[in-house]
Amino acid sequence: MAFPQMKGKHKGKALFLPQDFINHALETGKHIASIPKNIIICYSKSLASKIAKSKSAKPIIFFGRKNNLFRIKNNIAILVGFGIGAPAIAAYVEELITLGAKNFINIGTAGTLQDLQAGDFVVCDRAIRDEGLSHHYFKSGKYCYASKKLTTKLEKAMKTLNIKYRKGTTWTIDAPYRETIEEVRQYKKEGVLTVEMEASAVFSVAKYRGANAAALFVISDRLSKSKWTPEFHKIAKSKLKLLNIAIKTLSG
Questions:
Q1: Torsion over CA of 143, 144, 147 and 151, rounded to 10 degrees?
Q2: What is the pTM of this model?
Q3: Which string of DSSP letters, residue by residue, matches 125-136?
Q4: pLDDT single digits (tens) 57-95
Q5: Where are the domains of the chain?
Q6: What superfamily would CATH give domain 17-251?
């Protein structure tokens, strides 16, 4: 049976929208502050902790909460502490776009299927849609794409900062413990650089709602020759660079 279960559902009208949820939150006493147009999406708990403790990061009240969204510049905020995976981030992107956000840079760790090393950077220009969420927004297909304009700005910032990177395709999957040997071999053959859990969802929601999204990863583990090699302990400095690159991109 095809997915989603109802054929052509991406063309259908949603029963309720992010604005309906926002209206409900406001009616029940939740405060929502003004939202910057530029958002950095951060999955790292260690980075989130540093940001929360930083004197330059100001909490933005978001649905009554003070620990998910921080203003780090007048027109830039960073989203943290929301979990992992496509559904978790998609809901936030939907709500933030409705509240005025226009540009999103997704920063995070990724496994590599190629000859990359821990700490290397990858700019993602397209994602294999091996998660469920994107198929509710667009007709089923293999890829979804990052914003060309925002990706170009991201690359320009990295070149200005003299940071080397590779550019290419990621494989977005919902099931990290079901990345099969056959899939890894096939995608490696196709030249896919990375595997992670959110990029295709972020790209899809942003495009559907008329916003822009780009993605930048740091390599944290390797999947090759039927073996997984974790190297998360080697990338602390590189994760901090992710944040600095994103800020540089959105400040331009």
A1: -40
A2: 0.95
A3: EEEEEESSGGGG
A4: 999 988 878 788 999 999 999 999 888 999 999 999 999
A5: 17-251
A6: Nucleoside phosphorylase domain (3.40.50.1580)
